[in-house]
Amino acid sequence: MSDFKLTRKWVLSLIATLWVIGIAGSLVAWTFWLEPREPTIEVEHWATGHLMREGENIRLLPVMAEQFNQAGHRTRAGLRIVVKVHNVPSELIAEYLAPRVKSGRRIDLTGLTGGYVKPGYSDPTVVTPSSAHWLVTVNHEVGQNVVDLGSAQSIVRPIIGIVTYEEMARCLGWPEKELGYADILALRADPEGWAKYDCARPQWGQRPLVAYTDPTTSSTGRSLLLGLYSIAAEKPPEELTLEDVNDPNVVGYIKEFQTLVDHYLIGTTVLNTKIHQGPRYGHFFIMPEDNLIHLYEGTEIAFINGVKVQAPPIAPGSM
User: For position 55, what pLDDT does the model report?
Assistant: First the structure.
């Protein structure tokens, strides 16, 4: 091999060449950054996590936003419309909107949720909570129609049901008999409880155990509470009045249900964790249907021993 020697002239020439290349690269970068970008209209969409879930064929709203953005929709003035979808829990949508509209005060949702809500969100243009009753609260607290619920459109209709173990449901007469809240109330109010049924297993215990999510933080718990008021007043939820809510018979019905609850949980994610503890923890759980589907598929999130994990799938037919 021949010797490779660096002369002073060659080194200076190399440095000069690299310096020129550096300048040229910088000019290209500056040209890119200074090049005028296409003006856009950004639409901030805050939506419930039920419509934002990760996984194949699950990310409903993010996929819809991607398809919308790729289609290149524009305003009449020719500005490109870009939709950005963010996961914000329903109760926090309401908690943010009321003071923002009423006094201009912004709530730090990132700090409030310990980072669950990501930083950098602008005020929402579109909101999609799990249920419209959160927006009813916003309008009430502000004292005016922040959201026109009359013209608002529903994109999905969630089903909230009573989830129990199949063996327990059959013991109570399902599927020949449809089971509802009244059956749970009657079972719980009966002094004999499960002991009244020969089909009941000893490990269930005598007292039927009911788990319920906090209506101040959970859309499921809140929707159930409105449903109970509706049942007690014998009126559709949208027709309930303050007189109905304060009626002694209605109040008594709600209090009776509350006395039957064994576990109040902050939300359905925590509730899902408890289901894996089996009948020793609870027998009846109030849950949206998509949570149950994810529990069967093993795609649900749960907190086990204080750690956020993907919950193991529950056995088919067990619930």
Answer: 56
Q: Is 21 helix (H, G, I), strand (E, B) or coil?
A: helix
User: What number of H helices and E strands is found in the chain?
Assistant: 12, 9
Question: How far apart, in Å, are the Cα atoms of 181 and each of 81, 110, 253, 254, 286?
Answer: 46, 37, 12, 12, 10
What number is the average pLDDT over the span 104-121?
A: 88
Instruction: For 229-277, give the DSSP string.
Output: HHHHHTS-GGG--HHHHH-HHHHHHHHHHHHT-SEEESSHHHHHHHHTT
User: Binning pLDDT at 50, 70 and 90, where does residue 205 land?
Assistant: very high
pLDDT, one tens digit per residue, over 43-81 is 999 998 888 876 555 678 889 999 999 999 999 999 999
Q: State how far Cα 307 lies from the chain centre.
A: 19
- d(CA 54, CA 37) in angstroms, rounded, equals 31
Alpha carbons within 13 angstroms on the beta-carbon side of residue 27 total 6
Structure tokens at 253: 């019905």
Q: What is the pLDDT of residue 7?
A: 46
Average pLDDT of span 197-205: 93
CA distance 31 to 48: 41
Strands (E), the chain: 40-47, 80-87, 126-128, 160-164, 210-213, 263-265, 284-288, 301-304, 307-310
